[in-house]
Design goal:
Layout lengths: L1 H18 L1 E18 L7 E6 L6 E11 L2 E12 L4 E2 L24 E8 L2 E9 L1 H8 L12 H4 L23 E9 L7 E8 L16 E11 L2 E11 L5 E11 L4 E11 L5 E14 L2 E13 L8 E12 L4 E13 L18 E12 L1
Antiparallel strand pairs: 1-2, 1-3, 1-18, 3-4, 4-5, 4-6, 6-7, 7-8, 8-9, 9-10, 10-11, 11-12, 12-13, 13-14, 14-15, 15-16, 16-17, 17-18
């Protein structure tokens, strides 16, 4: 009897210990048939089986340990997944810097997020590779979540989509820190502030062996975000600045949403600036909506982006309309379709789903997605 009681006590203690920590395997597999075409002579269409038309395909591990006293430690390792061809980890640049060395990103699988955290009633301190504060508003207040052919131009514009000149905003190949930053230190406000949320982040270029003409601080920056969400209402503003050898890049944006029940309305405005050798100014905005329909949801948006190079002449501008539908087969599985059309003016060169734009200005493009998403 005594041995049985001891055994039960040991089992109970082991159960309590295991309950204090947990590790979860999670992921998304999203396959997309993507089609894109462009108008006018010299253009060419493209059809491909790709991924991430609704949600980004990924594979990850996350865990948390209860440290007692209201504190916990956690980690999050998440890598990109190319389920159309079986590749992993190499589709997202992982450097903050403007000059990408030959071995950058080699062997790094967890390029979407790689963090370790301490949290408590005072908030959370998070270290590693993570989303930048300014990206959150672009994706949260986009009906398409910055995925697939319907992705807002407020994200694609400063990444080079409006022509070769737009690449002067952020370095080619790195996309700067438009979405994520490596070597990041972040602080997040606690969740008990009556709907107020926010974060502040600092990231370093961390170039240990700069070549001639590079600064060790190339790619170093900081950003912050502050918002309020309660009931059907959510609004947030964000700012970020990154220092590059070729000139500093600054962005700020504001976004909001209101859930009316029959539909959720969304809107956002963004402004991007590069300060040298000449000042470049980009501005864009989006309006959109999510409309629940039975087991599915209609998604719609209109976005536009324009770049002012500050040297006179015409400034490239693009306007895009997107419409889609998602049908949930279960809590984890959905089928979806999206169609988008973009109009290019004054030399803008936005193409959808890999469509090839011929020579000349004011070429338009149309794209179509059809896919299935499963999460686990």
């Amino acid at each position: 009897m005594k041995k049985s009681l001891i055994a039960l006590a040991v089992m109970a203690a082991a159960g309590a210990a295991s309950a204090q920590s947990s590790v979860t395997l999670f992921g998304i597999v999203d396959a997309t048939i993507a089609y894109g075409r462009a108008s006018g002579p010299g253009n060419d269409s493209k059809t491909a089986l790709t991924n991430s038309g609704y949600n980004s395909s990924r594979l990850g591990f996350r865990g948390v340990e209860d440290l007692g006293g209201g504190m916990s430690a956690s980690f999050w390792l998440e890598g990109s997944l190319g389920n159309d061809d079986g590749t992993t980890g190499q589709r997202i640049p992982t450097t903050n810097r403007s000059n990408v060395h030959a071995n950058d990103g080699a062997g790094l699988v967890f390029n979407r997020r790689s963090t370790v955290s301490l949290s408590g009633g005072w908030g959370e301190v998070r270290l590693g590779r993570d989303y930048t504060p300014s990206f959150w508003n672009l994706t949260v207040f986009d009906p398409f979540g910055t995925n697939g052919v319907g992705t807002t131009l407020t994200l694609g514009g400063p990444g080079g989509g409006l022509g070769a000149g737009a690449n002067t905003f952020v370095p080619v190949g790195t996309r700067g820190v438009l979405v994520r930053a490596s070597n990041d230190i972040g602080y997040f406000l606690p969740a008990n502030l009556g709907g107020i949320y926010g974060q502040i982040n600092f990231w370093h270029g961390d170039d240990a062996a700069p070549v001639a003409g590079e600064r060790q601080s190339d790619g170093t920056g900081a950003g912050l975000r502050l918002g309020y969400g309660a009931g059907p209402f959510n609004v947030a503003a964000a700012w970020a600045r990154t220092k590059y050898d070729a000139g500093d890049y600054t962005t700020w944006n504001i976004g909001g949403s209101w859930d009316f029940g029959v539909a959720k309305a969304m809107a956002q405005y963004t402004r991007d600036q590069k300060d040298s050798p000449v000042e470049i100014d980009g501005r864009g905005w989006l309006i959109g909506a999510l409309v629940p329909v039975g087991a599915g949801e209609i998604r719609a948006s209109y976005s536009t982006y324009k770049i002012d190079f500050g040297v006179g002449g015409d400034d490239p501008k693009a306007r895009q309309v997107a419409l889609g539908y998602v049908h949930n087969l279960s809590k984890r599985t959905a089928i979806y379709t999206t169609v988008a059309h973009v109009r290019n003016d004054n030399g803008a060169r936005v193409s959808l789903n890999g469509a090839v734009l011929g020579a000349g200005n004011d070429r338009n493009s149309t794209g179509f997605d059809l896919g299935i998403r499963h999460s686990f």
